[in-house]
Amino acid sequence: MLSINGSLIQLGGAFGASLAAVVINLTGIHSIVFVTLLTSLALILIQLVSMKKYP
To answer: Where are its TM segments located (predicted)?
Structure first.
């Protein structure tokens, strides 16, 4: 379970950085909070689904 959590943290960092670069380029720095929230929620959902699928 620890390796899954570590992998999700790394995945979240990669997704967050990529999305942040695109969003900042398109809309500006003020919307970075929304990217952080959406990335965090997506990773929580991925973790919940994987915990139900692989107990």
So the answer is: 30-49
